Amino acid sequence: MSAQPQGNAPAVAHGAAGGIAARAGGGAAEGPDEAAIINDMLSGYLLLVLGCISATLVIWRLSTGLSRYIRHVSCLTNDTQTYFARAGSKWSWFKKNVQYSPIFSKRHNREFQLSSAINVGTLPTRLQLVFLLGYFSTNVAFCVMGIDFSKPVGASATVFINRTGTLAVANMIPLFLMAGRNNPLLYLLGISFDTFNLLHRWLGRIVALEALAHTLGYLYRTAATKGWSVAFEGIFKSSFLIYGFVATASFVVIAIQASSVFRHAFYEIFKILHICLAIASVVGLYYHLGPKGFPQIKYLYPVMVLWAFDRTARFLRVAYYNFGSGGGKALIEALPGGSTRVTVTMARPWFFKPSQHAYLYFPSVSLWQSHPFSVAWSEEADSPSGEKLPMDRRDILAMKKTTVSFILRGRTGMTGNLYEKAASCIDGKMVTRCLVEGPYGGMHQMHSYGTVMLFAGGVGITQAVPHVRDLVIAYSNGMAATRKVVLVWTIQSPEHLEWIRPWMTEVLGMEKRREVLRIMLFVSRPRSTKEIHSPSSTVQMFPGRPNIDTLLAREMEDQVGHMGVSVCGPGALSDEVRRAVRNKQYTGAIDFVEEAFSW
């Protein structure tokens, strides 16, 4: 860029704003070169602000990671962990009122459902809202800063047109970065894909509004002297304008069809159309800017590189884990409650960690669609060929066959079709082709917590089971600070226990499991009291829904070390757990992790 700001970002942005306003105050007086420099500077400041925020989050992630590591190592042989159980008043206030806080009292992940078919989305957290409002306001200010609208329309509108167009293209860089599944910032910043998805949607709306303002500004400038009919006709007489109009139209349609109502009602159509329109917008912009040598083309090149990188990385992931060595074969089992258990044999070893997820492709069910699902279980088994003995590490790895398992709740579209096909087969089982794209995630590990509470609702158990297995094994081997693991699972019917029965049977048979693990099952819709029975003191079953506050308070009475609370399930459950954790911040040291996939 022509000007690279240095030093403290807020101070620089404030000083730059004043300088730009002074330089651009003449509106019509500034020349085209000076206007281009100012537009470049403003775009640079937008990206600089995002870079400074990212750098701050990297420092935050490193410091909290170091704190967890010290706590983990210090508590390996400490059964009381009293020091780490104390709550610091300043951190407790920050977590309660900023880090974990919804906008209002409780609602965050629970969707606003107008009907069974109409969903208008969820609310961001307080911290997310502050960022979104700040970034939106900055873009609005930069679009009009220093433009003297009292000057003749031709002069002031030209500055506005160039400004909004430049900012729209510059904002496409973070827009496409946040859309990628292989976004490197996911791991550098420790931010969930769900949060990046939220930011991606709002950045898309900002780009669409700036592109629309750019196009309307051009039409208004032309109409001011030649009339609206001439302005509209002129768009279709020049390839330069046609391509620009295609890009703007694509952005606007994306903004409309990506709204929660359309996205949830017609997701399969939305996804295909979304990709096609995104490609159309980039192609339109390229031929709008490139042939005339506009400087804004330099912002479009990173966009194209980011998109190509993400698509290439996705293809390589799929190819590596699924092609060859008998990979990509899936056993589909129809389960009670309209769910399916999918067990996929991988072509190569998968180094599994709890809280990972993957995208599944079923070519025989839905050719182009992929959806994210938490990995519920993974294991390796020897598969000797019998032809020769292993001679090196490569031969040993080739003999290992990794299987990964998922639970899919049948709804509409792909998951519903998959369940129906499996249920129609003999014994409710079938074998089909499945491609697994992953693994992704796995950032939230619980080894450093003395007390761990895992809340799950329905198929959200797929996020909790890997943590349970991982923590029990680590405790048995003396590799975790964890001394208490409490799993709270809410299901509608005892039949749903079948979803994870083979895996929990293995967990319940693990060494030292009774010393560290307790399981509480809540059946929200039991058909009779006879269905409710507790197998043992460490595995208990209850009718109704759990009282989150009571359960959390009970565990905190004899809390060991720092407590980690994780939740995965319906939005209402997540919001209840979030509220309970916030209310207990001053009682003891407690962290909150929410696993969610918004779409």
TrEMBL record:
* Topology class, membrane: Multi-pass membrane protein
Key words, A-Z: Electron transport, Ion transport, Membrane, Oxidoreductase, Transmembrane, Transmembrane helix, Transport
Compartments, as annotated in UniProt? Membrane
Which domain of life, per UniProt?
Answer: Eukaryota
- Domain FAD-binding FR-type residues, every copy: 308-446
- Is Cell wall biogenesis/degradation among this UniProt entry's keywords? no
Residue spans crossing the bilayer: 42-62, 129-147, 167-190, 202-220, 240-262, 269-289
Instruction: Report the main location listed first in the record.
Output: membrane
Keyword set includes Cell inner membrane: no
A Pfam family in this protein? Ferric_reduct
Q: Which family does it belong to?
A: Belongs to the ferric reductase (FRE) family.
Tell me the protein's name: Ferric reductase
Show the taxonomic lineage.
Eukaryota, Fungi, Dikarya, Ascomycota, Pezizomycotina
